[in-house]
Amino acid sequence: MFARSAALRLSQQLSRAVGSRGYADQAMSFTFASQNQVFYNNADVRQIDVPSFSGNFGILPLHVPSLAVLKPGVITVYEESGSTKIFVSSGIITINEDSSVQILAEEAVSVADLDGPASRDILAKSLALVASASTEEAKAEALIAVEVAEELVKAAEG
């Protein structure tokens, strides 16, 4: 039943696009914010690449509606004028039936603003927290900090 319903919805979405515009001509309404900054507010974008725990994936117009948890990494947003890379520590992404996309990140910063040496320092401090953790809970929290810091270093140096 679910598969039949999903196939019907996809068929309806595709039929709206056929004969009118191709993927490259379409844009998605995109909203992206963190606790301290709004990066996009109902902007028209062409494609979004996101890191999630189910694997990195790209979002194009007419993407199947989805909800995913973001893992630490770089989100790449493709607009007509070029692309923008933003590092996120974690968050959620919602892809709606109308092709609108929302990302809410716990922490986010433009990759251009990252500092390589500072990122490596954060990683070193996170590793030290793992080594000094006295409880399983403290160790788990420190390992999460290490995962974020490792991705932060990759983003800053890559």
UniProtKB/TrEMBL annotation:
<dbReference type="InterPro" id="IPR036771">
    <property type="entry name" value="ATPsynth_dsu/esu_N"/>
</dbReference>
<dbReference type="GO" id="GO:0005743">
    <property type="term" value="C:mitochondrial inner membrane"/>
</dbReference>
<dbReference type="InterPro" id="IPR020546">
    <property type="entry name" value="ATP_synth_F1_dsu/esu_N"/>
</dbReference>
<keyword id="KW-0066">ATP synthesis</keyword>
<keyword id="KW-0406">Ion transport</keyword>
<comment type="similarity">
    <text>Belongs to the ATPase epsilon chain family.</text>
</comment>
<keyword id="KW-0809">Transit peptide</keyword>
<dbReference type="GO" id="GO:0046933">
    <property type="term" value="F:proton-transporting ATP synthase activity, rotational mechanism"/>
</dbReference>
<dbReference type="GO" id="GO:0045259">
    <property type="term" value="C:proton-transporting ATP synthase complex"/>
</dbReference>
<keyword id="KW-0813">Transport</keyword>
<dbReference type="InterPro" id="IPR001469">
    <property type="entry name" value="ATP_synth_F1_dsu/esu"/>
</dbReference>
<protein>
    <recommendedName>
        <fullName>F-ATPase delta subunit</fullName>
    </recommendedName>
</protein>
<keyword id="KW-0472">Membrane</keyword>
<dbReference type="Pfam" id="PF02823">
    <property type="entry name" value="ATP-synt_DE_N"/>
</dbReference>
<keyword id="KW-0496">Mitochondrion</keyword>
<keyword id="KW-0999">Mitochondrion inner membrane</keyword>
<feature type="domain" description="ATP synthase F1 complex delta/epsilon subunit N-terminal">
    <location>
        <begin position="28"/>
        <end position="108"/>
    </location>
</feature>
<keyword id="KW-0375">Hydrogen ion transport</keyword>
<keyword id="KW-0139">CF(1)</keyword>
